Amino acid sequence: MMYMLLWIAVIIQRLTEVMIAKRNEMWMKNRGGIVIHEPLYKWIVTAHVLFLISLFFESYVRHQHSAPIPVIYLIFFLVLQGVRIWCLRSLGRYWNTKIVVLPGARLKKVGPYRFFKHPNYFVVGLEFIVLSLVFHAFLTAVLFPVIHAILMYVRIPEEEKALKIYDKVEYGR
C-alpha cells in the first residue's frame, strides 16, 4: 500500500510540474518568449512515462511491493525532492520542461544554478536511480539513468545553443 501511495504521489508531482511548465510557457510567450522546436522533447516525456510504468511493473512482477521500504533510499529521495523544488523555485516563471527563451532578458545564476548549469537534470538522473531502489526495481535503476543521460547529452547542448542565440536570457529573480 505504501508503495502505491508513493507511486501515485510521484505521478501527481510530475503532472503538477507539467501544469506549472505550461503556465510558465504561456507567461513567457505573452512577453515575447520563444519556444525552441525540439524533436527530442517527446522522447524525454516518453522516458519519464515509461520510467513510472517500469517502476510499477518491475516492483509488482518481482513481488517487491510487499517488501519493507528501504528508509535510507526514501530519505535520499525526499532530499532530492527538496533540491528539485529549490531548482524550480529558483527559476520561478522561467523554469520549464521545454526550451523557452525570452529575448532581451539577462542570464542570472540563482539557487543551485550558482553551482552548476543544469542541476535539475542531475537531480532527475539521481531520482531515476534512488526511486527505483526504493521500489526494489533494479533493472529500472540501471536502464533509465542511462536513457536519461543519453537524452541530456543531446538536450543540454540544444539548450545552451538557444541561450547563446538569445544571449541575455534571465533565469530567476
Automatic annotation (TrEMBL):
Residues annotated as transmembrane: 40-57, 69-86, 121-154
UniProt keyword list: Membrane, Methyltransferase, Transferase, Transmembrane, Transmembrane helix
Localisation: Membrane
GO MF term list: protein C-terminal S-isoprenylcysteine carboxyl O-methyltransferase activity
Segments forming a coiled coil: none
GO BP: any one term: methylation
Protein's UniProt name: 15-methylpalmitoyl-4-hydroxy-2-pyrone 4-O-methyltransferase
Organism: Melghiribacillus thermohalophilus
